[in-house]
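Batch manifest, entry 17 of 40.
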Amino acid sequence: MNEFVLVKLGGSVITKKDVIPPAINIPEVIRIAKEIQASTKPLVIVLGGGAYGHQAAHKYGFGIADTPASRLLSGIPSIRHNMSLLSGGIETILQSEGVSSVVIPPFPIVTLIDGEIERFPLEVITKTLNSGHTVITHGDVCYDSTRGASILSGDTIVAYLANQLNTSSVFVGTNVDGVLDANPNENPNAQIIPTISEHNKEQVIRVAGPSSSTDVTGGMAKKIHDLFLISQKGIEVAIFNLSVPGRLEGLLKGDQVICTRILA
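Output type: structure tokens
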């Protein structure tokens, strides 16, 4: 299979995170759909769940250690419904902008064991890419042989696909300029860390902490750790501000943009 580019679309950008019921940020997604067409390589787009995933997941106790399996299992229809609405809505916008895309949800094909991937067959994804289509997948709820059900995060999917497939680049879109040296909600003078390498990785992870928004999938520290492992395979890795027009397009074109690059 030819090399492909993996793009994570952060839920805080593509959804209106504080809206109940959840809603897609349509103007942002239209802009993103135009920007991704700058890619000269096949694309896998991984959607963060944003409000669609997190609201339902919290309602049924995902992310809480002592939630009984019966309660977690009872949340599957609600989470699946929400994620189907999100992925279908994104697919509709991309196709309306000329991006031939196919949604491949994890739920029917992925199984977990104690929150970790047990089985994730990739044949359909590779065939879809080889057919010339953009793959859309997303964070999802999946059956878990230990817990009953668990959340498979978009970040975990990014790490898995990057390691299993012929990936040239991984671009992780968030709502900030990259990895910052302080929480911008607490320190307005927080500065971007332009490069994370073996020399400063542990220090950055210590100050990164969890995501500031409601999340059940772990925060920035885990993201940095997983992305650093990806970079060790020689894959280009960048964390960037998806909400700033032109940043994603610039990365896809190979331009220098404001971001945090992770270098092994």
